[in-house]
Amino acid sequence: MRLPENPSTPRRALLATLAAGTAATLLTGCFSASGTSSEGSRDGRLRLAMMQPPRSGLSPLSDDAFKLSRWSTAETLVRLDRDGNAVPALATAWKRTGRTWTFTLRRGVTFHDGTALTARSVVTSLTAATGASPKPRILDGVDLSVRATGPHTVTVTTGTADPLVPQRLSSPQLSVLAAKAYRGRAVDPVGAGTGPFELVKVSGTASATLNRYDAYWGGKAKASGIDVKFVPDGTARAAALRSGEADIVEAVPVSQAALLDPKLITEVPMPRTNTLYLNTGSGPFKDAGLRAAAREAIDAEQIVKGVYEGRADVAEGLLGPALPWAAKLRGKIARPAAGAAEGARITIGTFTDRAELPEVAQVLQQQLRAAGFQVTLDVREYANIEADALAGRFDAFILSRATVLDSGDPAAYLYSDFASSGSFNIAQLSDPAVDRALTTASGIATGEARRRDIMRAEAAVLATDAAVPLLHERVIQGDAAHVSGAAHDPRERELVTLDTFVR
């Protein structure tokens, strides 16, 4: 194939074009076992091409929980609305008394094995989560206990007053499953959820099959089932949409989006920020002036236009357009003056799991060198680099970070990443003013006042230059022309719902 002689066409997109034909060939017929064809589903079933295979056997106590949520097979006591507020799901109401919350369960709910949802089944599921090792992220640092106080009421008590308990219980990692799912340390979600689709088969890291559950408490789903293929290669996922081998494709790479029919893709701002963390604990960036010099040397717009081909948003702060209230409440930030780099040697780490990050690192290397820094890159798979990043072995680290974690509230992310005792403090930040602001934001009740304090905490972090926010990512989802009702969820908790179907 001869490459177009168009200097404005990104080289990465051209290479992706060459790879697309091979990927399409590899995927041809990959959904044929389900009785479907490249012309679309003929039996009302939806074909999904998903990015990451299961890492923990689809245990809800792991990140695999988000797959169960996106397939509408496992459900939680509450869910989050668009603004991050907790609304009823398996629980219809709740009230707070000090450290204790009482939840009233929905009547008439059955698990996929036919057993009824009761307070005892909720206790079993939540107790398994609190006793897991490691715990689900949403329970990091939270002392939580649960007990049944009636056939359809449960109380959840925390060690200290926690205004976020309902939001925490919306995490897919706290899904409620039938008792049969819990056997020893393993949790098996097959046939154990309460959602409109029943998980009936899992074939390792290759595929999963779900059928409609006609006894679902919320009504009958429009699709008859879901056939899932795990396709880690982004070019292959895009090819599956282009060739008609998949009805819905998640996480279309930026490099592939331009090669698809614009009518088939949807971009949604994600609560995910691409950030350069600067090591404030040791090395050159212990100096506030050098951190300021690095911040001023960075041109995020160049990264958005070049690496992301315009399919991202330049960051004004740590919290982006997926949280529309953030921009309204953001004030001016007082930052220190920049010093001179004078040949300061720095090592920047990042990982290959997200295709764009190594390219981001190369652009930052050029920009920082132009400002006088001597820059070395260390790029590995995430599993092989996380421990070094958390131990402060890099001068800087580029991370694509979810900013609302599992609660729909950014206070937990800010505390985890920037508090002195934060469990994910890559910047090694220890700043009393930041700690005070984070503690205040974490303790106040949900609502407008909490949001104002969250933005004050963001300002306190940014004033240290411990983190330089670069851009806010967008999720790019592909939906075939014959698909209706697919969810476009910035939190990536929903994908196939009651109302999703193939025409």
TrEMBL record:
<dbReference type="Pfam" id="PF00496">
    <property type="entry name" value="SBP_bac_5"/>
</dbReference>
<dbReference type="InterPro" id="IPR006311">
    <property type="entry name" value="TAT_signal"/>
</dbReference>
<feature type="domain" description="Solute-binding protein family 5">
    <location>
        <begin position="86"/>
        <end position="423"/>
    </location>
</feature>
<dbReference type="InterPro" id="IPR039424">
    <property type="entry name" value="SBP_5"/>
</dbReference>
<dbReference type="InterPro" id="IPR000914">
    <property type="entry name" value="SBP_5_dom"/>
</dbReference>
<protein>
    <submittedName>
        <fullName>ABC transporter substrate-binding protein</fullName>
    </submittedName>
</protein>
